[in-house]
Here is the input.
Amino acid sequence: MTKTNRRRGRKDRLKQVSEPDLQPPVWPGVVGGRLKPLSAGEETMVEEAALKLLDQLGLSQAIPSMIAKVTAAGGSMTDDGRLLFPRKLVNWAIDEARRGFTLCGQRPANDLKIEAARVHMSTGGAAPGVFDLDTHKYRDSTLQDLYDAARIVDQMDNIHHFSRSVVARDIEDNALMDLNTAYACLAGTSKHVSISITEPQNVAEIAQLCYAIAGGEAAFRARPFLTVMVCHVVPPMRFAEEACDVLELAIQAGFPVQLISAGQAGATSPATIAGSLVQAVAETLAGLVFARLVDPEVKAIFAPKPLVADLRTGSMSGGGGEQAILMAGAAQMGRYWDLPTSSIAGITDAKRLDAQYGAEKTLAVTMAAHAGSNIVTQAAGMMSSLLGVSHAAYVTDNDLLGNILRTIRGIEATPENIAADVIAEVCRGEGHYLGEQHTFSRMKSDYFYPEIGDRRAPRDWEEDGAQRIGDVARDKAREILNSYFPTHVPDDLDRMLRDKFDIRLTRTQTGRPE
Here is the structure.
């Protein structure tokens, strides 16, 4: 090959590299589900045990409307006040549950298709604390922190969904906190948002806020962009009465709902992994029955999220192998029934961005995702066993999650990908693949490249300041917070919302002129 041809070939390759990705290396909804920690026989045992508990033990503290609906559908009340769910009714709830639906973003580009084993990464937590970007110490979280978390996530390609991550502890009134939590999340990101609602009487105002943003109630019901997360049980096997009221009202208002059981192994659920899993599955299925009796077409997400305790102290411990395998098993049961499923994973016990953080988060998120959880919550930003959030960690986790998504995508062994003809051509030619068209055509579609992960030689890294990954992430987080203020809520709509609702984030805090 002449020097001129080599130059021309290099220029052509550079042109190809600079062209937009036709096929990115990872995307929202990469299909998982290959990891199955439960054998087929164990799946059946978990199912049988859960159905037996619901049929013969039931749950206590059911609200009147639930009792009326379940007993009218074939359930019954025991003398000691437990509501029994017959197998036929539970199987109806599972078999006829809505599948293959979309969790909408405020912008359609952020829509998430929830079906089969498609995997999406999410924040989460409701943490009471924040690891401060500047002081590197924990402090109480605020409404501003929540808005800041949402707008960082809005810029992270591999965090697909924003679940309320911190509590606005600077707002004491529950109704105001719920309203402003919804506003801060929805103003901070156009991705699908999930929040909790503390009291039933607060549902209506949050619904009105969403209707106003959507352009009317009908528009929101057609494209709901906010899910209400409901911990409808207080384990073991008791309903949370106010939460069940919230669940019923949220469904009636048109919200998708996430049905969460979060017992703690050894404390509020059995110490064994299998026992904790069975209880969480049973409690979540009871919520699914009620949700579908309220509205058979509800967008309901099966979300058994059993947690683990360190039995030496009784404190919650989210970073161990027990939590990872428990979440993978919960996700597998969701796939067993082909239910839209959410899992909790990534609640590392680490207190800052360090080796413990990366190891524990990677272990848990990888297992839940490979087991096929549709929404993996707490996968980004969360640390300190659900007690704290780091804004810088959203930036590092964007890389971590991209790499995990790439592993879920798999090897994709096809005749084209095996590339036997390319191997033969190279072996008979120059003996390497660096200049091959096949290499350049795949370098962006098949390989995930980290945004802040450092792959340089040690000397180059040292000459550039030898920054630790946490320092790089903090700089990136500050850059976003200083320059990026989302505008998907138009200015005139934002002013209208402030006239109608008691919004506590100032326009200055959201980057808008007063």
Notes: The chain has 19 helices and 21 strands.
